[in-house]
Amino acid sequence: MTYETQKRMMDLVVASILTVIFLPVWIIVPILIMLDSEGPVIFTHKRVGKNGKIIYLYKFRSMVEDADDILHRKDKRLLREFKKGDWKLKNDPRITKLGKILRSLTIDEFPQLYNVFKGDMSMVGPRAYVAKELEEQQHKYPETQKLVREILSVKPGITGPWQTSGRNEIPFNIRAKMDAEYARQRSIWNDMLILVRTPQAMISKW
Description:
The protein is mostly helical. 54% of the residues lie in helices and 10% in strands.
């Protein structure tokens, strides 16, 4: 049995188990989001998938409804800070009160299980990057261009090597090395090890 077949089977089994275990989450969280702020329950975002294909990644909405518009059109200072921080904001004012809780518990990522069922993503893999982020980060870190090609040779994952490394604030060039190494040396045993380490990594964020 090939690695791809084993991985797909593992993805479907793990995603199915998590969907059932966290059934209350699928009922309670959407209600809380609707009570907390205006906007859709599910947030969809364009990301770059395997072989550069654009996919739509799903999350529970953890920001105000016009979050992207605020960042890219209404607040240039915030955008500069965002890019300076390697496409991250330490104290993002767009995150809702409930969103902070969802993110700290990684509950906002749960709808990505649908991406796994669709086959757009895997349970384990490199981060699903935004196209503009990849473009600008490769310009900032030219040495990552080869690494990005390796990263895009596999499906992105809900969890991955850098998420379970114990280091939350990792610059793009280091993160790209970790993701490319995963793509280069991927194996079902490594995937299983990352999955086992993920709950501990989630707890360490609290």
